[in-house]
Amino acid sequence: ADRLEKDSEYVKMSNNAYGEDPSPYVITRALANFERSLISGHSKYDEVIKGNTRFSDQEEIGYNLFKSERLACTSCHSGFNFTDYSFQNNGLYDVYNDDGRYRLTGKEDDKAMFKTPSLRNVALTAPYMHDGSLGDLESVVEHYMSGGSKHQHKSEHLKGFQLSGLEKEALIAFLKTLTDFQFINNENFRNE
Predict the structure, then answer these.
(1) b/e string for 115-130 if b means 16 or more Cβ within 10 A?
(2) pLDDT category, 181, cuts 50, 70, 90?
(3) Which of 77, 113, 170, 191 could bond to 82 as cystine, CB 3.0-4.6 Å?
């Protein structure tokens, strides 16, 4: 806020939009409004669901794996946005440096619990996990394959599973179909 207050253009825009100079309140509201404008519903996945195109063979295998009871991905990543909006512990660590939802609620059962993120545009949102500790989708899939740590609040859905190299590639290929076309060709959103 201090830095933005030194820029007359930001001060003017802040006052026009929020009736006050830049502040933590204004910044958080502006970010939230920006995020709400990132509507994602025009991906290859969406086009497949509408019947306008088909998955490649590899993407189809990945989609079926994603939906399977064997992997249980849809236990948490379901619905239009591929999230159930719940708070879960995905077994990333035995001991967490971040208390997660506990910081808000003060409830012991919320320690190291984090909101299940949407998988929409997941190919563009690296690094992954609440702390950015996993740099690519392959690392994420390998984490879930391992079944995670033995943290006391780890989700009951995380049991680990085996995938062949081709199955892992297929799952990742499917996840990439969740990327909205508007972001694929936009230099500001590409993650290479």
Answers:
(1) ebbbbbbbbbbeebbb
(2) confident
(3) 77
